Amino acid sequence: METTWQLKSLSIELMGYGDYKGKFVGKIRFENGENEAFLFNLEPSESNKFLELISEKVCLTASSLGEKITQSIKAIGNPDLKAIEI
User: Fold this and answer.
1) What is the pTM for the complete model shown?
2) Residue 61: which region, alpha, beta or left (left: phi > 0; alpha: psi -120 to 50)?
3) Phi, psi of 52 (to 5 degrees)
4) pLDDT confidence of residue 21
5) pLDDT over 90 at 8, yes or no
6) 23 lies in some domain
7) Model confidence pLDDT, tens digit, residues 25-43
8) In a domain, 28, yes or no
9) Is position 30 within any domain?
10) 28-65: b (≥16 Cβ within 10 Å) or e
11) Sign of the dihedral defined by the CA atoms of residues 14, 17, 23, 25, in that order
12) Reduced to 3 states, what is the DSSP secondary structure of residue 20?
């Protein structure tokens, strides 16, 4: 029987203690349909590669969110404007 492994989760976390305090470390988990799974850790250098891949998207999203918040705040004092849902 062929087993298909699928990526279940990928997480990157800034460590607050231990040898990696102040560095990002990650975990990747794969599962199959037979209640089997495996997990492996990412070293800080590997985690940083993932962060580099998403950094531009994070900045664009943050900028867009900031604009929406600003528009919503301005709309509070002006009943002719509708607040924007975020």
Assistant:
1) 0.61
2) alpha
3) -60, -40
4) 94
5) yes
6) yes
7) 999 999 998 888 999 999 9
8) yes
9) yes
10) beebeeeeeeeeeebeeeebbeeeeeeeeeeeeeeeee
11) negative
12) coil
